[in-house]
Specification:
Length: 152
């Protein structure tokens, strides 16, 4: 059974935090699905990932191609997990279901600490997942370094 890690982004934006988590996931040997809420936002993230530093290359693709199952990192708005991912990362309020948390090695929820709607969605997601018996951790970077603030 996996766990859900909530990342409260206050110091670094999504496009800086996501590559760090993707790199750690790949180092663990996991395939990853990044689930977003809007195709245009995922296209923007796709571009940011391709334009990242050469030493931080992250092979990935946008869902809908002929080789989705082969992608080590797949960006999607759908609920499907065609690449046998062991890690599911939610961005921009995309939902993760309790059964997904329980079937993954790790599920991550990244949310913008400067957006009241994002905070409300993250709190609701925490209640849903912990209420269903999922293990969860809340991480904050308000001090400049990531620190676990709560665990359920």
């Amino acid at each position: 059974m996996g766990q859900a890690l909530f990342y409260h982004l206050t110091q670094r934006p999504l496009e800086a935090t996501l590559p760090m988590l993707l790199q750690k996931s790949r180092q663990a040997g996991w395939n990853v699905v990044v689930r977003g809420a809007a195709p245009d936002r995922l296209a923007w993230l796709d571009e940011k990932l391709w334009l990242g530093p050469d030493d931080g290359f992250l092979p990935h693709g946008l869902a809908g191609g002929a080789h989705d199952a082969d992608q080590p990192i797949l960006l999607t708005t759908g609920d499907e997990i065609p690449n046998a991912a062991q890690c599911l990362i939610s961005v921009d309020g995309a939902l993760i279901h309790p059964q997904e948390v329980q079937s993954m090695a790790r599920a991550c929820i990244l949310f913008d600490g400067n957006d009241d709607a994002a905070l409300t969605r993250a709190r609701a997601q925490w209640k849903t997942l912990t209420g269903a018996g999922c293990k969860a951790q809340y991480w904050s970077e308000e001090s400049g370094n990531w620190k676990m603030k709560s665990e359920a």
